[in-house]
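Our example pasted here:


***
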Amino acid sequence: MSDVRRERASLAGVVFAVLFAQVLLYPGATDLVAAFDASDPETASRWFLAAEFGAFVAFAGVWGALSDRAGRRVPFIAMGAVAGGVGYGALAAANVRLAGALVLRAAQGAVTIGAFSLAMTMLMDLSDDHGKNMGAAGIAIGLGTALGAPVGGELTEIAPRLPLVVGGAVLALAGVFALRVPDRAPEGHGDSLRAGLRVLSNRPSLSVPYAFGFIDRFTAGFFALVGTLYFRQEFGLDAGATGLTLALFFAPFALLQYPFGRLSDRIGRTIPIAVGSATYGLAVVGVGFAPALGLAQGGMVVVGVLGALMAPATMALVTDIAGDDERGVGMAGFNAAGSLGFLAGIVGGGWVAESWGFESAFLLAGGTELLLAALALPALLRLD
């Protein structure tokens, strides 16, 4: 295996670890917050998941700017991953009520995003095959979520806090192994943190992949919470079966990212993003209106395939636009936009499902995808 391929696999392993640890908690989120004495577990699970993503949004740019300024990635990746693992362990061991758990969750998210975003940035540094590199990141994201969902469901049935223990151990180990990866970051620019963050305003074209990143992660956040509640309540699935059903989305989403990423290197970013976004929202709505479990599960597979078509092309577009010494901030902005989308999917989708039912919630998710994609598409075509 060549050095670049080995480094690509190692960095993808860090991305995998972050997502695997994260998604372990999703199938049993209501059981977990009940262990923290939440009076309304369904609502509390929404805020527990949202606390991490709020921290992602707040701190992604900070990690990216620090990395670009220092001209180093590896120490920050290792620090973020190990500290994130400690945060998971603290949540597992702490004898606190829900408010204390939310504080710990936010602190864990603030450090974990450093490992996640900068590992993806180092994949940007590897070579000019941006679609291939982002396809590796995408397959790691998809595999982490695909495996995290069913494993987390089974662990939850043993003990509600067990996914925290396993997730923390996996993340900390990934941080230690990251130290073996050579640092390919460009030379640091020496600008202040504030000047580094201004890169985002100096490159307005980045708003195009950011918009599509927001849209895609919105539906991912929606499925993380509302999808879990939907399959458990409407079809009577337990945590383990719910995890396996969520994996029907995440498995094709993972396995197809690398080939679709390479495809975008050959044919450009516009076609995969445009075609995927035009049909993705309809597939999401179809899952919510499926009259039988089998049809809903088939819809999850379709959603996963379309998501895999869009995701690596969207991430590669960030790499195409950002300058060499701006990649940390550029990818941080993308992840912040995605985290905002995920947060909106969790909070907004959960609120609509709770207030007006699952059909209205799925209409919101799919309709939002279609609307925002239609608004962003002209800018994508101009960029191409």
About this structure: The domain at 3-183+204-383 is CATH 1.20.1250.20 (Growth Hormone; Chain: A;). The mean pLDDT is 82.
